[in-house]
């Protein structure tokens, strides 16, 4: 035994606990065999995480192993709990967008969209959102789906050892993030989709960039397919792993690519359309093997479908030049605009001239909206969206004030992670990693 | 520390310090401590476009025993804090900590019951990097500034003097609330 | 100063018109919540909460009125579902095209079983807890979102329990997905789900005291120091609402 203060075993009420530091596996095996009670028959409880490169963030896995087989798998979550929902109760309705966008940080537009849609339903302005705002929302959400699936594939590949998938995944993701930066100003956590519409109009030149991006991705996406789809090592590691059939998915409340890998084409964009999705031409991707390989193939295919939708959005935005992007009701619409000033970026001088010189009402609206915010009639609403991981819904409760009374997010990763035990028990330790990677949990959404 | 402690201070030690500092900064391995959104930006800075490998830092060691730098990327919740401290303690000297993002530096926008208001409550931080999340270029800038610090780290007797000086400077520094007239 | 022209005088008729008749924008929005349920009061406006300020807004007392119960027929398939859980429902609220069934906790398990088996609501999106501190005797609400994939319908089932006795039956046997959701509701609100297989804390550390998302639990922030000033935490700042 070493002298390291962390390496010695310690006695707890559940038996000896060892911290493995390297080159001491024999000590662990010896200690387990020496254990006085029935746990000594080669059953080892291994704690994986929360700091671990392969658990998709701060997820703690408690695995009871018998040799290489997992007999029990439990998830410990909450290591990223930030209290976002409670923080939102102390902020305006619009400021809530900047908080909720950081929950599921790989698909920030979806968090914003479901929250904004819920608030708009309570405000009863769902029909008054301008068409350009809806098209921009769809554009940004589908681009986000592409970037999120790229991260899922990249990190999944890294976790099974395919490091090239990681580098090419992040390379493509940079293209998407450049588009986000052009349109919203930020690479991540944008706070762009707000109740009433979107925050800014599309900048000039954005449509050309979007079209270039689509053309480039159409050449790049087949690279992933060529690299992974028929790769024997890839298939051997992913096929049959993390099996969860339709009954299991429905019982556990699992949606998204995991549900679609069982063959059931459930997609909220088709069944419960929002933001005008019913007017777009796209297909719902399914696979029929209910395993990790199917989910991987679905994610790849969904990226192709998202590209189709992005193309259609770009065509629509072409003819919507100059259209408003915020709802017409000035008591709700976020007032300030940004423009490139002489020193870089700043308040639009046109807007300032308007509120200071031309219109008293605009000044009052600007002042009231920025200090107090708008009031939302009392009630509750739940408008789910189809995020890259499944059904993401914000249960928004208002008590008639300027702050959310309660904003609870039904996050798909939180619910999907409940499937870990079912997927992993009976399999091998390495398959646990693959199964969790195929669920694609984002711990920011799980813990909020 | 070994042989460096036994060398006499003076020119010989300075040269050794220079070489040791260069060696340390040129192969400065980070420990994976990605927590939230900043972790994704940290991963992209290791990716092809903002390449950390050109600074010798591409290998993110999973084991803290093999790492020199802990980049705390993301919000540290109260549940995660003891884990953070344990990983920090498991790292071998010399070690540095970079608090990436506003959540790690000061709690960020989450001033509430669940988030530690700055990881300097738990571990000593050598470099604070604001941003929500900071761009990969900002992260690389912070890392390069940290490289300068690493290069300047002294050895042996000089190191003890350096530590005493840094402590004295820290104790005598003006508290933030007394810094008036600097609201630029 | 030249005397004002007769044309400049406002029209006699226009002055006699009421503000509503002069322009449609002058009509205040009509309250659509007739017969609503009062769950509390809001005191003051524009930041003055405790009265005693010269503007007078501090003395305002306004009830918080939630949408009221709806009467039969609810419209469309709402009636079909309501027939299915006839007798178990305390109140039905239809608001913005969404239907909420308020159920007593004694009837919750029966209602959920009927909804799942007979009405084909196979999918439960989760439990959301809400704390209404002013609604005496009904402070903690558990809101279940149910989805019928067969019929593509969404409903909400809401249960209210008092703070003094926050027990309600666990629906894990009916919808296993609620395992972690009920643990989260216990963790954040203190709602005890009787019959849950393992009701422990899930998000907060295992030994955390208190239930953080209740309204009587403080936000817990600390004041932030800036150069030359301090900003108090969000729940203690000057607020304009």
Element pattern of chain A in H and E: EEHEEEHHHHHEEHHHHHHEEHHEEEHHHH
Mean pLDDT metric of chain B: 85
Rg of chain A over CA atoms, rounded to whole Å, is 24 Å
> How many E strands of chain B?
4
> Largest chain-chain contact?
A-C, 50 and 53 residues
Strand residue content of chain A? 5-15%
Indicate the percent of residues in helices of chain A: 40-55%
* Overall shape of chain A: globular
Specify the helix fraction band of chain B: 40-55%
Draw up the topology in text.
The complex is a heterotrimer of chains A (448), B (184) and C (241).
Chain A: E1 10-12, E2 15-17, H1 25-34, E3 43-48, E4 60-66, E5 69-76, H2 84-88, H3 95-100, H4 108-123, H5 131-159, H6 163-184, E6 193-194, E7 197-198, H7 206-229, H8 232-238, H9 246-252, H10 257-260, H11 268-271, H12 292-318, E8 338-339, E9 346-347, H13 349-358, H14 360-371, E10 379-387, E11 390-398, E12 406-410, H15 412-416, H16 420-424, H17 429-439, H18 443-447
Antiparallel strand pairs in A: 1-2, 3-4, 4-5, 6-7, 8-9, 10-11, 11-12
Helix pairs in contact in A: 4-5, 5-6, 5-12, 5-17, 6-7, 7-12, 12-17, 13-14
Chain B: H1 3-6, H2 11-26, E1 30-31, H3 37-45, E2 69-73, H4 81-90, E3 96-100, H5 101-106, E4 127-129, H6 136-151, H7 156-172
Parallel strand pairs in B: 1-2, 2-3, 3-4
Helix pairs in contact in B: 2-6, 3-6
Chain C: H1 12-16, H2 19-22, E1 37-43, E2 61-66, H3 77-84, E3 89-95, E4 98-103, H4 105-117, E5 123-131, E6 140-148, E7 153-161, E8 167-169, H5 178-189, E9 192-194, E10 224-226, E11 229-231
Parallel strand pairs in C: 4-7, 8-9
Antiparallel strand pairs in C: 1-2, 3-4, 5-6, 6-7, 10-11
Give a verbal description of the structure.
The complex is a heterotrimer of chains A (448), B (184) and C (241). With 448 residues, chain A is an alpha+beta fold. Helices cover 47% and strands 13% of the residues of chain A. Chain A has helices at 25-34, 84-88, 95-100, 108-123, 131-159, 163-184, 206-229, 232-238, 246-252, 257-260, 268-271, 292-318, 349-358, 360-371, 412-416, 420-424, 429-439, 443-447, and strands spanning 10-12, 15-17, 43-48, 60-66, 69-76, 193-194, 197-198, 338-339, 346-347, 379-387, 390-398, 406-410. The longest helix of chain A is centred in the first third of the chain and has 29 residues, at 131-159. Chain B has 184 residues and is an alpha/beta fold. In chain B, 42% of the residues lie in helices and 8% in strands. Chain B has a 4-stranded parallel beta sheet with strand order 1-2-3-4. In chain B, helix 2 packs antiparallel against helix 6. The termini of chain B are far apart. The radius of gyration of chain C is 25 Å and the shape is flat. Mean pLDDT of chain C is 81; it is low at 1-14. Chain C is of the alpha+beta class. The chains are: A alpha+beta (448), B alpha/beta (184), C alpha+beta (241).
